[in-house]
Each structure stands twice: as C-alpha cells, then as structure tokens.
Specification:
Keywords: DNA recombination. This protein is an alpha/beta fold. The chain contains 14 helices and six strands. The protein has a six-stranded mixed sheet with strand order 1-6-5-2-3-4. The longest helix is centred in the N-terminal third of the chain and has 13 residues. The chain is elongated and about 90 Å long. It starts with 8 loop residues before the first helix and ends in an 8-residue tail after the last helix.
C-alpha cells in the first residue's frame, strides 16, 4: 500500500499561490520538486483549483494523520460477526469474502476483500483473533513432511482392477456417484479414520475405524456407510493399493460398487481425496491418537467441511451441490 506524501505548510502556500496564477500541476510540481500527481491529488482532496486554500488543507491533513484508522471489519458489527463465524468454521479469507457476496447480494456494507481480512488479522489480530488466523491455515506447518510409515505391500490384493478401467464419465466429473477413498493414520500408525469424497460435489464422509484397519473390518464399515446413499450416488470407489482394501470383492458384492485401484506411487490419481485429507489434518493433526474421536465428532467435522464454500464449485458449498442432485430424487442432506 502506497504511503501518502506529506507536504509542508510552505509547499501548500506555493501550491495556493501558483493556482491563483493559473499554473498547471506539472509546472507547480517542478517548482516544488514533486511529481505532478502529488500536486493533483493534494488539490483534488481539498476542493479543487478554485476552492483550494493552504491553511484549510494543512488543518485537514493534520486531522487525518491523527485519526485512528479502524478497519472495515472492525467498524461493522454484522460484517465482523460474519467474518469471525467464517474463521471459526475454518474458512479461508477468500472463501469468506466471496461467499458473503452470494448471501448478501444487495447490501454494499456487507462487502470485504480477502486482503482486508488478512490485514486485519496480521496487523491488529491478537489473542482470539490471531488464533483464528492459525485455524484458517490449510496445513498448519511451513513445509512438507515425508510420511514415516512404511508403505503397505501391494502383492496382498487379489483381483485388483486398475484405474485405467474406470468409466470415462468419471474423469470429467459430469456424472455423480464416483467416490475416492483413503485412510488417514494417527500416531505410530496405530489409529485411523476412513475418508470418502464424491468427485463431482466434493461431498465428504468420515468413518471411525476402531481397533485396527484389517481388510474385513474396512470392507464392512465401508459397505454399511455406502448403503445409506441412494443408488445413483453408488457408482464406484477409487483407492490406492493399501492392504486395507484386500477384501474389495466382499465390499463390491455387498454394495454393487466396483473398486478401482490407482497405480503405485500415484497419489494424483486420487487428487480430490488427497486434497480433502490435507484439509482434514486441520482437525486431526499428524502424530495424534485418532481413536479418541467419536463418530459423532467425525460427522460434525464432515458437516463443517461440507458447509465450506469451495472455489472449484464456483463458491457453492458441497452440501448445496449435493442437495441439487438429491432434490431431483426427493431428498436432501443437512450441512
């Protein structure tokens, strides 16, 4: 942000005198050794050529310099409450700034840029406000950390169907019902949460996996969850080659959903789920015990994620996009 140039009383007197002589801004700037735009802005701020007076301009500048500059987010109670609610929900400033235009399209006072939110937080944020800023950070860390856990053996899964066999309609996200899944692991890889995300709507579901991630347990929990969905949302699941999906045939028999497996060391083939897991690390940091979280808490986290406006959805929320689909089939999901 550019700083306003401070003019002396003598310079203002010169400007006033030269204006009376009908001098141009460029000429006056040359006399002062200032850029002509400095003179033009000074005159425009103080009534224009005919009304400019050096003494009055000096008094106005002194008042402006002394006045505390509260930011828009702090001045407006409704706007501040909306921003704080968004930060509490772990929305990014860009999500807040864009979504507020959708919800208050005819209220100019409910407008704020994401830069203003960031400036308010960084410059004046203390205590609770500063804590909100850290909650809004995606990763909570400055650099990537390589996973310490050993990769599962890939020769344990029989009858794998490669992702190259997945229907082409899944690629462009034009058809709903294609899911991506994975596990996020806790400390020492001794606890886990099953994560699912629908490719078109980015709708997230989380499943508590107690005790261990054995293939039979994962197949049963995953099948029970998927059977709660309408049939049009049960087309397939894409997974990596983790041994927890060794009973994929059992899952497919129970749900009618085929499982497609990514190539080894190819996380981008499940990019939607990988991105979702990074968001989930805000709630479930690496190195913590995930077994302490109840299914009720996992459902609450999923509701919070599904209630965030997403840039990839033109700033709609995943739950809103899913409800558009369900409305055609006589149902709706809660945020």
């Amino acid at each position: 942000m550019a700083c306003r140039v401070v003019l002396s009383a003598e310079e203002r007197e010169t400007i006033s005198r030269e204006l009376r002589a009908s001098r141009s801004f460029r000429f006056i700037g040359g006399v002062l050794g200032r850029h002509h735009s400095v003179v033009a802005r000074e005159v425009a701020r103080n009534g224009g050529r005919l009304a400019y007076r050096a003494t009055r301009a000096g008094k106005r500048a002194k008042v402006l310099r002394a006045r505390p500059k509260s930011r828009k987010v702090e001045r407006s109670g409704r706007l501040r409450d909306y921003v704080m609610a968004g930060l509490n929900a772990r929305w990014l400033p860009q999500q807040i700034a864009t979504r507020i235009r959708v919800e208050f399209p005819t209220e100019p006072e409910m407008r704020v840029s994401h830069e203003t939110i960031y400036r308010t937080l960084f410059v004046q944020g203390k205590g609770e406000l500063r804590a909100m800023m850290y909650k809004a950070l995606r990763s909570g860390r400055a650099k990537r950390v390589s996973p310490s856990a050993k990769r599962p053996r890939h020769d344990l899964i029989v009858g794998m169907v490669n992702i190259s066999e997945r229907p082409k309609e899944a690629e462009d996200r034009a058809v709903p019902g294609f899911w991506e899944g994975d596990l996020i692991l806790g400390s020492a890889c001794k606890s886990q949460i099953l994560t699912l995300v629908e490719r078109q709507t980015r709708f997230v579901m989380l499943i508590r996996v107690p005790h261990d991630r054995s293939a039979d347990r994962v197949a049963l929990l995953l099948a029970n969850k998927m059977k709660t969905l309408p049939e049009f949302l049960r087309k397939s699941i894409t997974w990596d080659q983790g041994s927890e999906m060794a009973d994929h045939a059992v899952f497919t028999m129970a749900t009618g959903m085929p499982v497609y497996f990514c190539d080894p060391h190819s996380p981008w083939q499940r990019g939607t789920n990988e991105n979702t897991n990074r968001l989930l690390r805000q709630y479930f940091p690496k190195g913590t015990d995930l077994s302490v979280h109840s299914q009720a808490y996992l459902d609450e986290v999923a509701r919070e994620l599904n209630g965030r406006p997403r840039q990839t959805l033109d700033w709609y929320k995943p739950v809103e996009k899913l409800n558009e689909l369900l409305a055609k089939h006589g149902g709706a999901m809660t945020p």
